[in-house]
Design a protein that fits this description.
mainly alpha; Growth Hormone, Chain: A; 2 domains; two-stranded antiparallel ribbon; 15 helices; 2% strand; globular; disordered N terminus
Length: 414
């Protein structure tokens, strides 16, 4: 039986947590704002969506590939220093991309791709670090509530970022929007580092005198790999739904509806996260994942070619109801990652999760595109539901995650 979960009111009473949580969310705003700003800037520069895709892919690959390394650096060194270095590096990289797009012809796109890859390697690990430190701040009893709050608030950030980018583009243009995104990444990284320092988590880890740690790879732990696989499958399903909804509105000749439908999906997630933290404390993880599978499967049923004509309101209702399981499912994934990793390696663990979800999202986009071209939006959404069913099986029948042991060896003394 799960322990009762504390609510939002309990979290607000934790000293320093509200401010730290706020800055951790603002530190991710640049992530959701950048794709819109960067895509519009690059297409205006090159007049080629292929180049937009190549640059975006290089940036994403860099972010995913370096995520475990950034996490390991956070576990073993000063998180404040890491945030400062990556913030400067990431903002500088975006600034170089803007400068290149403003001064060189489109034939120089390979240089921009290379710079994007390096920039991705310097991505600021705000989400990794925050998810790793939450259990240290609130303890085991409130950790599930905090992960639910994070998954819910992340939906707000995902929606707000593109709106911020669109506002800057409308006022000053896409080149300025990318620059503002880089500046936002730098400032939020520095402020988040300062907030961590105020709660005593911004410095070097405590040394282990007389011992050296023999570290096994986290990927050698079966329960940890299983949870990472669950995160990959869930993320791939979300990407499949998002792309399919956009494609459906494009095929209808009403692309503006994509924003309305995505808003319904997001509002459902917000409602689900609020309900979980307020009325359904301690809900087991398996029903959460099952709810997500059912919601996505229901969406597949009301999309072409299964149904050629369907009232728009019905699609919005299905998206909203299906979305209510998103934040609870993501929160369950965060909880399991934390449970399956040692306390002093949680930033690395969430780095592996970030790498898996980045790869899962990229692969899902490719496969969903193929299915969309061949069969229409219902099939990629159904494939997404099938992925969540696999995640459900792994959640329901996998071994309970345990904290891997860390072997220590006494150092020779003089």
């Amino acid at each position: 039986m799960s322990q009762p979960m504390g609510g939002v009111k309990d979290l607000l009473k934790v000293p320093g947590l509200p401010q730290l949580f706020l800055w951790s969310m603002l530190g991710r705003l640049n992530v959701s704002a950048l794709p819109v700003a960067l895509a519009l800037m690059l297409v205006r520069w090159s007049n080629s969506y292929v180049i937009v895709g190549l640059v975006g892919c290089a940036l994403t690959l860099g972010q995913g590939a370096a995520a475990p390394l950034r996490g390991r650096a956070a576990d073993r060194g000063s998180t404040g220093r890491l945030l400062m270095i990556t913030g400067i590096g990431y903002a500088t990289g975006l600034g170089v991309i803007v400068a290149l797009a403003a001064t060189v012809p489109a034939s120089g796109w390979p240089v921009v791709v290379a710079v994007a890859l390096v920039t991705g390697l310097s991505a600021v690990p705000v989400s990794q670090i925050s998810r790793a430190v939450w259990p240290k701040i609130v303890g085991a009893e409130l950790t599930p509530a905090l992960y639910t709050a994070e998954a819910t608030a992340s939906e707000v950030i995902t929606t707000t970022g593109p709106l911020l980018a669109a506002a800057v583009i409308a006022v000053a243009g896409p080149f300025w929007a990318v620059g503002v995104t880089g500046l936002l990444a730098l400032v939020s990284a520095l402020v988040f580092a300062a907030a961590l320092s105020r709660v005593g988590l911004g410095g070097e880890p405590l040394p282990q005198h007389g011992k050296r740690v023999a570290r096994r790879s986290l990927l050698a732990e079966g329960p940890f790999v299983r949870v990472v696989a669950i995160a990959l499958l869930v993320t791939a399903a979300i990407f499949a739904v998002n792309l399919s909804v956009v494609a459906w509105t494009q095929n209808m000749g009403r692309p503006a509806l994509a924003g309305v439908l995505t808003a319904g999906w997001t509002l459902g997630s917000l409602a689900g996260g609020f309900a979980l933290s307020t009325f359904a404390r301690g809900m087991p993880r398996t029903p959460r994942v099952a709810g997500m599978a059912v919601g996505i499967a229901a969406l597949a049923v009301v999309l072409p070619p299964i149904l050629d004509t369907v009232p728009l309101w019905l699609v919005i209702v299905v998206l909203f109801l299906g979305g209510t399981a998103i934040a609870p499912t993501l929160a369950a994934t965060y909880e399991q990652i934390a449970e399956a990793s040692p306390q002093d390696r949680r930033a690395e663990a969430f780095g592996w999760m970030a790498m898996a979800t980045t790869g899962g999202g990229a692969l899902s986009m490719v496969l969903s595109g193929v299915l969309l071209d061949s069969f229409g939006p219902a099939l990629p959404v159904a494939a997404g539901a099938a992925l969540v069913v696999v995640a459900l099986v792994l959640t329901a029948f996998g071994r309970t995650p345990r904290i891997p042991s860390t072997d220590t060896v006494e150092e020779a003394t003089a």
